[in-house]
Amino acid sequence: MDESLKQYLPKDYKRRAYYTPYDVSVHNTANDLWVSFFGKVWDLTQLVQENISSKLCEPLIKIAGSDISYWFDKQTGEPRKQVDTNTGLITYYCPQGRYLHIPSSDPCGDDELGNHSKPWWNNEQQYCIGNLSHKTRKIKIINMLTDHEDIIEVPSEETINEILDRYKKINAHAASYTWKRLGKPLDMELTLSANGIPDETDEFEQLGVPESQWYIPAIHLYFNDDLTVA
């Protein structure tokens, strides 16, 4: 492949069932463009790169890495509409400007990239890559071999195995440890809550406890005999 073309390819990433808002936020350029809306995460990198010469890409590039649920009607899932105060006509709500696959309001305008048989927001099969976590939570992971501590934010829906997979960015040999909570091995196929590690952040918030003082539960990692392959 021509090296000059590689910059236009989507970056490699780990496909997950659930993503945190932070996971989405780091994909915030024209060459690596994610958005979320209504609980789904969308990778629009290919869409934008295929139409990069069009000014209709600019609104998408501006909001790359963020949630754009407010662009769409919650009941229909279609782009919101509004009454144009100047003309009195119903037009599409485009706070950042008209974007790809939104029809032009000007009957004489260029609508080449507006009329589309299947607009991107309806093409879940091609562009949707997973779910946005309904609620994230923090967990402290303590390596009992090295006495090293890390606090990571994870989707509350993830199993311990999925959390382990995230933790591999910090410790490539994470699977070589037994994961325990209060001395009891965790069921790796269950979530934190299902393992008896409740999320108490709502209670802390209701009590007015500063977030910096919220209790973060800990998982202890005990090293096994042999290293797994990184």
From TrEMBL:
The keyword Lyase does not apply. The keyword Membrane does not apply. Transmembrane segments: none annotated. InterPro entries: Cyt_B5-like_heme/steroid-bd, Cytochrome_b5_domain. PROSITE patterns: CYTOCHROME_B5_2. Residues 16-133 form the Cytochrome b5 heme-binding domain. Keywords: Heme, Iron, Metal-binding. One of its GO terms (molecular function) is metal ion binding. This is Cytochrome b5 heme-binding domain-containing protein. It comes from Paramecium octaurelia. The lineage of its organism: Eukaryota, Sar, Alveolata, Ciliophora, Intramacronucleata.
